[in-house]
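Fresh eyes needed here. I'd like your take on this protein's tokenised backbone:
***
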Amino acid sequence: MLEKATEREQLAEQILDVIVSEGKIDRTKVTPEATLESLEVESMDVVMILMAIEQKFGVYIPIDGGIAEATDVTNFVENVAERILASRG
């Protein structure tokens, strides 16, 4: 079980790295409670971030459900991580 938690934490960090680089966001502003709006992440930025994540992890991530409804960084990262882990089986 600890392995799964560690894997999820590492995955979350990698997703955050993509958000920071693709969204051109100052890493210090990316806190768990930060909203995508407060980080000035526009819908087109979300598309670019998801495309970069898809390329990095070799998965397709549709913008629907939890990802479309995510308002803060934590929810966004958790939903993306869940999709990546589900694709790994």
Remarks:
- The helical segments are 2-23, 43-57, 65-69, 73-88.
- The longest helix spans residues 2-23.
- The two ends are 16 Å apart (CA to CA).
